[in-house]
Amino acid sequence: MSKYMIDKFMRAVEMSDADVARYVADPAAFVDAWLAGAGGPHRPTDDRSLTEAERAAFATIDHEALYALGAHPYLLWHFIEAAHTHEFGDGFGWRDLVERYRADVAPHGHVDYIP
Amino acid sequence: MAKLVLAAATPHNPLLWRAMRDPMPDDLAGVAGNFARIRDAIRDLGVDVLVVVGTDHIRQFFFDHAPAFVVGKAAHYHGTYENEVRTFGMEYVELTGHPDLAERIAGRELLPEAIDFAVSHEWRLDHGFVIPLQYLRPELDLPIVPIHTNATLPPLPSPRRFAVLGEHLRETIAGWESDARVALITSGHMATDVGGPRQFAGSPDPAFDAEAVAWMRDGDLEGAIAGCRFDRVMAAGNVTYQYVNVITALAAMGGRPADLAEATESRFASSPFFMWRDPA
Fold it and tell me: Fewest Cβ atoms nearer than 10 Å: which of A63, B46, B78, B278?
């Protein structure tokens, strides 16, 4: 169930320009606000929960930790790409992010990402 | 009766959308040329309807609802999402559906014997559908029947079921009392890793790519089905399973050798281009 919530959070953020901007501005506050928006009895299909390790990984945009925790790789890459695009400039660009990401996840090999 | 006049398979790499522009970079000329060959064939054959078999990238169909095969029955479709506009520079598009053919494919009351479909009346198509259409029919004026195949979220349909889908499409089109000329487009890629340790470093498995071309070049349907077992395909890259969509095209054309079968090299991982023209 936990991997499902990791994927659910990433998809929710990455699909919206506005939510990407809010997340990047204050990741920890965004994560807590997202968790607080859980469904409850009147919204039975919008449960939201993260373990403390998952919450911490999102609060610090830690792609290595998220990969190791079983985030779906396709969703994770696009989530991380969205979260770092604002940093692209003369000294750091898309290819640099690709290289950094790849180096960070490689030691973990192929993780089990099936929820 | 309607006629299946062409089947083809193309890549849907959205990174092409920014890179493949005039003046055409040398390394992308082959990719642009193969898109043009299939685009010209669709025009020359007088195609009226496109059936597009592709895989949604966990956008419309997420882990909360992940059906194996979905037939789009809508009259109209919106194309691409906010995140794809942002990340890939894509453009929103509007597409026309073909509910009549979609209903024949999906079945109106009972599912076909050998395959189970879900249907969708409200579907925003992602780059897996939009990119091929924009290169193969830039006018976006032909009605489409989109068919989603779950090639992303295990448990996945087996490769043989993709062949059954192709056979079902061929039979359905042949039995459709219409003078429509139909083309089947499948959308996928060769060995590809996204978000894993081998992403964006060329093909993660050139040996798989070579085999994947040979099955289509030789018309080896059973070889393709056997060679696309889950563990082998996933070892070639974590999203390689979308290659299996090509099996649908091969089966729809009776398992005969493709007229065009190529893994086209470029700065990106190898791009699949397959085409079968009706011999008549």
Answer: B46
